[in-house]
Amino acid sequence: MLIHIIRPGNNYDYVKDFILDRLIERKKIIVFRRSTGWVTLGVDPIRVTMRNNLKTVSAGKMTIH
């Protein structure tokens, strides 16, 4: 599945879903689109899988579940 993203500098792009986690981890995108609308990193809550742990990231804070 391709996901619509916006990179720094307002560069629009589409990436495969498994690439999205890497881009979020490396802070290479500003926003991405999910079925419910646009998600702004550092503002909207997101879940990412990293090293087999589920982490919730919200407004710059990270909690491990």
Helix content: 10-25%
Structural class: mainly beta
Number of domains: 1
Largest sheet at a glance?
4 strands, antiparallel
**Tally of helical runs:** 1
How far apart the termini lie comes to: 26 Å
SSE topology string: EEHEEEEE
Shape: globular
Strand content: over 45%
> How do the strands of the widest beta sheet line up side by side?
2-1-3-4
Unreliable residue stretches: 50-54
Backbone CA Rg: 11 Å
What is the typical, i.e. mean, pLDDT? Answer: 80
Give the total of beta strands.
Answer: 7
List keywords for this structure.
single chain; 65 residues; mainly beta; 4-stranded antiparallel β-sheet; 1 helix
Describe this structure in words.
The chain is mainly beta and 65 residues long. The chain has one domain (2-64). It contains one helix and seven strands. It has one helix at residues 17-25; strands at residues 2-7, 11-16, 31-34, 37-40, 46-50, 53-58, 61-64. Strands 2-1-3-4 form a four-stranded antiparallel sheet. Strands 5-6-7 form a three-stranded antiparallel sheet, with helices on one face. Strand 3 (31-34) and strand 4 (37-40) form a beta hairpin. The radius of gyration is 11 Å and the shape is globular. The N and C termini lie far apart (26 Å).
Write the layout of secondary structure elements.
Layout: E1 2-7, E2 11-16, H1 17-25, E3 31-34, E4 37-40, E5 46-50, E6 53-58, E7 61-64
